[in-house]
Design goal:
The chain is mainly alpha-helical. It is 70% helix and 0% strand. It has a single domain, classed as A middle domain of Talin 1 (Up-down Bundle), CATH 1.20.1420. The protein is globular, with a radius of gyration of 19 Å.
Length: 185
Amino acid sequence: MATVQSVTDLVAGRLAVGGWNALLARLKTDRHDQSRGGSVEERKEAYALFRRSAIEFRTSLAVLIAAPPRLVGALWSVPLHLRMLHRMPDDSSRLLDDFLAVHTVGRLPAIEAAEELLTRISAAVHDYSGHEDDRHAKRNGKTGVDLSPIDEALADFTLAVRRDLGFGDARTQSGHDAEGARDPD
């Protein structure tokens, strides 16, 4: 039976900072301009799948990080946690596949936002893996891993997607301008 450490090692291996940076550098050299990309429907589907994969992976990572250290071994008896932790390697593969789809059919602002989101997810996994052997941090329940950068990057990706698909900024859609004043129309 797998342990939390083996799941962490596998996920960290899939999203290893060195490997991810090499992939990102290669993709950046092959980056295409604004005029290319897939149809609106292809982009919409790719963006939605990547966003869903990022949210699912972030949720699983939060469960892993938030587990009280004294209960980490007992997580395997909790069905929800068991399913989430066992799903993490597949979730990381799906996340990378969905990112490649965004890179293939997306437009530059959305691609850059997706790159930033994946970079922050990778950094969080790397930070967690680095604290895995820190008994003092585990005893205090503090791994030093902050998931808020992932949340910020996810919000930025969502805004980039909305702009690319013609939805504009959420603030302008509700009848407010950038300063928050009511639009006269």
